[in-house]
Design brief:
It is a multi-pass membrane protein. This is Type II secretion system protein. One of its GO terms (cellular component) is plasma membrane. Keywords: Cell membrane, Membrane, Transmembrane, Transmembrane helix. The chain has about 300 residues and is mainly alpha-helical. The protein has a domain of about 100 residues. It contains twelve helices and no strands. The chain is flat. About 5% of the residues have low confidence.
């Protein structure tokens, strides 16, 4: 009876997914405006570190086509996926490639696991492999999101570290007599680190579009999900061109960011020390059990 229920539930879920995939919803105003805004953004070429190892050409085309279809469906239904978009923006990857990878991994896990279990002889019935295959497909579908978020958080920490140095450079340029827009652009011209390059691109785009530099910084912070950039843009917008006051404010903000980074590093070091201490305690307990086992076994 359980197998029949599982089979019926699987068939029903499959039919529901097919109907949802084929149904063309009427997009709302917010979804339409979001799609048009994404289309207006220039496409960036992926760097070698962001692109990774190239797959086979045919598989890559299938992944891209499937990802574009999934992205269009998500946009038509008004699914913003803001956290994923922010992480992809940090990693300089496209949404279509990410969604295509998720779909292919889920399909591969769903097909591979039942075959592997059948060939290994671990299970004999059909219901258990189907349930395990569905669980594996769900896990494989969300696995790229977890990996992406971890990598994006590391790059955000790197970006915050560079932002502190950027603020010091801006303060030095202001002390040299430059105005705030010129100081921001000059500070972003130092070095070819990816964070400096993104900052320089944001300031250049703001100048081309007729925005203020701090508005360009705020948009970059919103795209990357970096709160410090949005706070910096708000401070710059309030200060304007008040030279000495804004210079002292930037130096204080850079010092605050460095202290926060130092606290984060000390916290991570403390967690590592606690993990090592727990591992040592477990080794001591295991050694004591190893020593006491012969004597305890003789008592029985």
């Amino acid at each position: 009876m359980i197998l029949e229920l599982l089979a019926g539930a699987s068939v029903g879920a499959g039919i529901l997914l097919i109907v949802l995939a084929l149904r063309r919803p009427v997009p709302g105003v917010a979804a339409t405006l979001s799609r048009l805004d994404r289309q207006r953004r220039p496409r960036r070429s992926l760097t070698a570190s962001a692109a990774g190892v190239e797959l086979d050409g045919r598989l890559d085309r299938v992944r891209t086509t499937l990802g574009e279809r999934l992205e269009a469906e998500a946009g038509a239904r008004g699914w913003q996926l803001m956290r994923t978009r922010e992480d992809l923006e940090v990693m300089n990857r496209s949404m279509s490639t990410h969604l295509g990878t998720k779909a292919l991994l889920a399909l591969g896990a769903f097909v591979w696991l039942p075959v592997a279990l059948k060939l290994s002889g671990l299970v004999g019935g059909l219901g258990v492999p189907v349930v395990l295959a569905l669980a594996a497909a769900v896990f494989a579908f969300f696995l790229p999101d977890l990996a992406l978020h971890g990598e994006a958080e590391k790059r955000r920490r790197d970006f915050r570290h560079v932002t502190g140095a950027f603020l010091d450079l801006v303060a030095m340029n202001l002390a040299g007599g430059r105005g705030l827009p010129e100081a921001l652009m000059a500070a972003s011209s130092f070095g070819d680190h990816w964070a400096m390059v993104r900052m320089r691109q944001a300031l250049s785009n703001a100048r081309i579009m007729g925005w203020t530099p701090w508005e360009g910084i705020a948009r970059l912070g919103r795209d990357l999900g970096v709160e410090e950039l949005r706070d910096l843009a708000s401070a710059l917008a309030l200060a304007g061109d008040e030279g000495a006051r804004i210079r002292m404010s930037l130096m204080a903000r850079a010092e605050s960011m460095r202290r926060k980074e130092m606290v984060d590093v000390e916290g991570a070091a403390g967690e590592s020390s606690q993990s090592m201490l727990m591992a040592q305690l477990l080794m001591c307990v295991a050694f004591l059990v190893f020593l006491a086992y012969p004597a305890v076994s003789q008592l029985g």
